[in-house]
Structures are given as structure tokens and as C-alpha cells.
Amino acid sequence: MDNIWIAAGLAAVLSYLIGSINFPIILSRVLCKDDVRKHGSGNAGMTNIMRTYGKWIGILALIGDSGKGTLCYLLARWLTAALAPGGEALWCVLAAGLCGMLGHIYPIYFGFKGGKAVLFIAGYVVLYDPLTFCLCFAVFLVVLAVWRMVSLASVVMAVSFPIVTALTHGLLGGEMPVSILFAALACLIVTVKHAPNLKRIAEGTEYKIGERSRY
After folding, report:
1. CB of 209 within 8 A of CB of 150?
2. pLDDT tens readout for residues 74-88
3. What is the tens place of the pLDDT at every residue in 123-137?
4. Cα–Cα dist 134/112, whole Å
5. How far apart are CA 2 and CA 7, in angstroms?
6. Which strand (E) or helix (H) includes residue 142?
């Protein structure tokens, strides 16, 4: 039993360090000799880097930031198997996911100023809960197609995450309380980080796909 908490602690620390590897910042510095946080919304995320430097560097950021989410999930599972064979992995998975998110938002390597963790969460949940990921991603695509705002689609997807988790786990079984706790915390983090975007949406000034940036 003690070993599972050791695994969870290691997963939390290592996932925070992995989450702190912010690919938009690294790519803008290495490829563009710049810092994406000096431009546009000031956010170190895929949307801002794509709007600032172009779609190909944005695609690289997407792969990197979602990939580290997937890596943190695999790390949590591996630590559980290595240190606590047969132990319950969900608390280890929860610790890794939350700390990886915090690393992405507050990266220790980049002055604690990072992104909003949407891609990290997506990369994490695609393995953690594939069915929920597919349903939430469908919500994202519908909102994006109708309103053409990545920020709005991200927030609606985040809000749908705990709701869809409750529905899928309630119908199909599983560790519902832990899964909903993770989804609810992820929803809260993403929504709070998008507060400036929500304000601009209310004011009618938020950037839409295909428009010139208003920043």
C-alpha cells in the first residue's frame, strides 16, 4: 500500500517537470529566435504560436504539448506497475495528470508563465479515457465549426468533460468518483485560465478563425 503513494509522489514530481517543457516557448526560441509570450495574447499555446509564426510551427507545438500529456499518463501507469504491482493506479494517474497540467501552466523552466493546458489534457485523456475524449472532442469540433473561436470551443469542451465522464462511467461502470474528480479539476483549471478570453467573448472582441488578430 505504501508503495502506491511513493509511485504517486514520483509521478506527480516527474509529471510536473515534464509538463514544464513548454513546446511553444521552445519552438519560438529555437526556430524564430523569439518568445511567443511577447506576441498576441501573451499565451504560450498552440493558437497564439500558430497565429504569430504560422501553421507548421503550430502543428509542432500541438504534437509536443499533447505528446507530453500522453507521456505523463504512460509514466504514471509504468510507475504503478514497477513499484506497486497489482496496486490501484488511479490515484497515481490523477496525481500525474494534475501536476502535469500545473507544470504546463506554471513551467519551472520558463518563469512560471506557460499555456492553458488544453492540449496537455487532450493528450492525457486520449489514453486515460478514450471514449470520453472522443465525445468531448466532438463537442469541441461542433462549437468550433459554429462559432469559429478556439477559446470558446476549449471552454465548452472543458465544461463537458466532467459531465461526459459522469455519463460514460455511470453507464459503463468504473472508478467514477476519482474520474469525475480529475475531470472537474481539469475543467476548473481550463475555465479559470480562459477568463480573459471569456471576457473578450462577452465584449464581442474575441479572435475568430480567419480574422486578423485584434491584439
Report:
1. yes
2. 999 999 999 988 777
3. 999 999 999 999 999
4. 31
5. 9
6. helix 130-147
